[in-house]
Amino acid sequence: MRIDLSGKVALITGATGELGRVIARSLAECGADIALHYHSNEAKAAELKSTIEALGRRAVAIKADVTKQDSIAALKQSVESSLGHVDIVVANAVVQYKWTSVLEQPAEDYASQFESCVMQSVHLAKAFIPSMIEKKSGRFIGINTECAMQNFPTQSAYVAGKRGMDGIYRVLAKEVGEHQITVNQVAPGWTISERERTNGLDESANYIKNVPLKRRGTDQEIANAVAFLASDLASFITGAYIPVSGGNVMPTI
């Protein structure tokens, strides 16, 4: 048994980010052709495109603003003209900002999180799910966060956006399930990425003391969960919020 995405086309938003690039490479290693969305880092997108093509897969890098419906529509047209029908959507992009208390957080940060978490997902669904319905097959995967369950101080804007996103995914899963389209979320914990491997790990003792597995997860471990959900091995899983956090957060029944 193995994860086989041969013949599939996957779109990853925020593909040039620390996690996005590992997800993109991993899905390509499983056999998928990859559409790489980026917002501004054209050089990294070109580098990642070359990496994926070196794996023997087709790839295209496309700039877009995921918070704008017309930009997502143009993205769809570009992807389909280059690679064809999109079978797998991974909504990974999110606006970055400085975290502070509710009383001090600028109002525009709440708006940016709503736009990049909730509305990105809505725009992607409107653009790509209709063709999945026609094919009676598809995978729609969102990158959420353990923070949505933690609700710690200074997390408010991020949590608000991601909890809103959670509602969209749960409803969407019920709306499109009859077409054999699965809709799921992967919720990473505090993840070790290439940046930290290069620059050194942040102090994490206070974090890992509460993690049952007593360590931080890696970007590859997050990508592994995404690859599983994108595959036929996960064909009967939908509407799930799956923490990949070493047990740091545990949804209850």
Can you walk through the features of this model?
By secondary structure, this protein is an alpha/beta fold. The protein has one domain (9-243): Rossmann fold (3-Layer(aba) Sandwich), CATH 3.40.50.720. The chain contains nine helices and nine strands. The protein has helices at residues 18-29, 42-54, 69-82, 107-135, 147-150, 156-176, 194-199, 205-208, 219-230, and strands spanning 9-12, 33-38, 59-63, 88-91, 138-143, 181-188, 191-192, 217-218, 241-244. The strands form two sheets. A seven-stranded parallel sheet has the order 3-2-1-4-5-6-9, sandwiched between helices. The protein has a two-stranded parallel sheet with strand order 7-8. The longest helix is centred in the middle third of the chain and has 29 residues, at 107-135. This is Beta-ketoacyl-ACP reductase. Pfam families: adh_short_C2. Keywords: Oxidoreductase.
CATH C-level name = Alpha Beta
Order of helices and strands: EHEHEHEHEHHEEHHEHE
Main β-sheet description: 7 strands, parallel
Largest sheet, spatial ordering of strands: 3-2-1-4-5-6-9
User: How many structural domains can be distinguished in the coordinates?
Assistant: 1
Structural class: alpha/beta
Shape: globular
DSSP helical segment count: 9
The H-level CATH homologous superfamily, spelled out, is NAD(P)-binding Rossmann-like Domain
Q: Count every beta strand, where a strand is a DSSP E run of 2 or more residues.
A: 9
Distance between the termini: 30 Å
Average predicted confidence as pLDDT = 97
Please name the CATH architecture.
Answer: 3-Layer(aba) Sandwich
- Helix fraction, binned, reads 40-55%
What fraction of the residues are assigned to beta strands by DSSP? 15-25%
Low-confidence runs (pLDDT<50, min 5 residues)? none
CATH topology: Rossmann fold
Cα-based radius of gyration, to the nearest Å: 17 Å
Organism: Paenibacillus glycanilyticus
Family: Belongs to the short-chain dehydrogenases/reductases (SDR) family.
Protein name: Beta-ketoacyl-ACP reductase
Keywords: Oxidoreductase
